[in-house]
Design a protein that fits this description.
The chain is an alpha+beta fold and 309 residues long. The protein has 11 helices and 5 strands, in the order αααααααβααββαβαβ. β4, α11 and β5 form a beta-alpha-beta unit.
Length: 309
């Protein structure tokens, strides 16, 4: 058994076992480069914690010249590459804290130590865990936001008719990134009624005019931070971040009212609405629900709005 002053040495001695325990708790493909790098990051993080235990610094003053935050940023990059979400980021750090605590609990005779010494160690462990989790989430959110902005930049003017990102960009990048970046959002899909028949009748110019007008009205009615895309041949989608289905419903009502008052290009539009996370816990589930709602709206017809249940 060790004394309290030897706790850092015990952690150092058991470092391979701590990392192995973390891998067991946070399983991944050993051949995956991001997972391998993340495992190495966690080993480095334990070494940093050992130095923190040996120092007289507080969690606010122990920076190692910015090296700690730099390591946290590297961890966030690998977590993002692995497809972690915010919950996954938190659990990575929580699992490491548990592994460290089990090592100390097993290898150090804590009851034989003074209560003050044990409390000091436990306090530093919790402070370090809280700090690295908060810093990790900040770094992770910054990465998600950066990728979202890059995706928007790549997706700009993808569709030649509307000037919007196309369905592939919407489904593969825009909606997944929006879900990863926001605790709440809503999606509305606006479908032009009888669009296919209009095209089949040779009225292609008319169909394009209708779709462009719908695009303009959806953009005008939606909040400034909304992300719009062409979802299909006759559909315009809108992601409304930070707001639930009530806000999306109001946007849809506004769009339909504007269309009804527009003498130049009159046409019917059906709308499906769904909310994250109420109607879907990820982008795929959310899209399934909004498409079900749209299908119901089209079945009813007459420029109807249906919210997923």
């Amino acid at each position: 058994m060790e004394s309290a002053s030897r706790i850092p040495d015990r952690i150092r001695q058991d470092l391979p076992d701590i990392v192995a325990s973390w891998r067991e708790a946070r399983r991944g493909d050993a051949g995956d480069g991001a997972y391998s790098r993340l495992t190495t990051n966690m080993e480095q993080l334990v070494s940093v914690f050992i130095d923190f235990l040996r120092s007289l610094d507080s969690v606010e003053t122990f920076t190692r010249g910015g090296a700690v935050r730099s390591l946290v940023g590297e961890i966030a990059e690998n977590q993002h590459e692995l497809g972690r979400d915010a919950v996954g980021v938190i659990e990575d750090f929580a699992a490491l804290r548990r592994c460290i605590w089990r090592t100390v609990e097993k290898g150090v005779d804590l009851p034989a130590l003074g209560g003050g010494e044990v409390a000091a160690f436990f306090l530093k462990l919790m402070q370090a865990s809280d700090w690295v989790t908060e810093a990790g989430l900040e770094a992770f959110d910054a990465i998600v936001q950066r990728e979202m902005e890059q995706a928007l930049g790549r997706a700009a003017a993808t569709d030649l008719v509307t000037g919007l990102p196309d369905r592939d960009q919407f489904s593969r990048l825009l909606l997944p990134q929006a879900v990863a970046s926001h605790d709440r959002l809503s999606v509305a899909i606006f479908d032009v009624a009888h669009f296919t028949e209009t095209v089949a009748a040779g009225k292609v110019r008319r169909a394009r005019q209708v779709l462009r007008r719908l695009t303009d009205i959806v953009r005008e009615a939606a909040p400034e931070d909304a992300v719009c895309a062409r979802f299909g041949d006759d559909e315009i989608s809108a992601i409304i971040p930070g707001h639930g289905s009530e806000a999306a419903y109001r946007v849809a009502e506004n769009v339909l009212e504007r269309l009804a008052a527009d003498d130049g290009v009159s046409f019917e539009v059906d709308v499906g609405v769904a909310e994250y996370p109420e109607h879907g816990t990820n982008a795929e589930e959310l899209m399934g629900e909004v498409l079900k709602a749209l299908k119901m709206a089209k079945r009813v017809g007459g420029s109807g709005i249906v919210v997923a249940h």
